Amino acid sequence: MAQRILAFFALAAMLLLSGCGYNTLQSTDEQIKAAWSEVLNQYQRRNDLIPNLVATVKGFAAQEQAVLLGVTNARAKVGSIQATPELVNDPQAFQRFAAAQGELSGALSRLMVVVEKYPELKSDANFRDLQAQLEGTENRITVARNRYIQAVREYNVTVRSFPSNLTAMLFGFKEKPQFTVENEKALAQPPKVDFGK
Fold it and tell me: For a designed S-S bond to 167, which of 16, 20, 70, 88 qualifies (C-beta 3.0 to 4.6 A apart)?
C-alpha cells in the first residue's frame, strides 16, 4: 500500500514538473542569446564598413567635416558600449545600446544625404561597392532584429503564462527588453513634403 501511495506521488510530481515550463524557459532563453548574437554580428559588420565609407566620402567631400565627424563620433559611441549577451538582461544598458545604434543610423542617413550633392562620388566604384555592402548590412540588421524580437516575444509569453510563470519566479527568469522606437509620437505624424524647393 505504501508503495502505491509513493508511486502515485512520484507520478503526480512528474506530471506537475513536465508542465512547469522549465525546459521551455531554457530553450527560449537560448534562442534569445543566439538571436542577440546575430544582431551584434550584423551591427559589427556595419561598424567595420564605416571607416572605409567615411574615408571614401572624405576624399570627395572634404568640406562636409561636420557630417563626417558625426558619423565617426556615433561609431565611437557604439564602440564604447560593451555589447555582451548579458546586455539583454539589463533594460537600461539595452536602452543605451539601442540609442547608440539609432544615433549611428541617423548619422549614416545624414552622410547619404551629403553624398547626393556629389555625383562624382556616387559614380566612384569603391563608394558604390561600400554603399551596396552597407545597404545589405542594414537589411541583415533588420532581419536579425526581427528574429530577436520574435525570440523575446516567445520567451516573455512563457515567463508570463501559467504555470510556467511560477517556474520563472522560482528560478529568477525575468522578462527581456524589446527593441523599441525612440520616438513613437514622431512616427504618428505624417511626413511633411515640400515640392517648392
Answer: 20
| Nine-digit cell string for 150 | 520574435
Domain count, the chain: 1
* Residue 52, domain CATH: 1.20.1440.20
Of 132, 173, 175, the closest CA to residue 151 belongs to 175
What pTM was estimated for this model as a whole? 0.73
Q: Is residue 73 part of a domain?
A: yes
- Residues with Cβ within 8 Å of 149's Cβ and at least 6 positions away in sequence, in order, are 178, 179
The reply to whether 4 falls in a domain is: no
Per the CB < 8 A criterion, the answer to whether 57 and 111 are in contact is yes
Report the C-alpha gap between 160 and 142 in whole angstroms.
27
Residue 2 lies in a domain: no
Q: Cell for 123? A: 559614380
- What tens digit of pLDDT does each residue of 54-81 get? 888 887 777 677 888 888 888 888 888 8
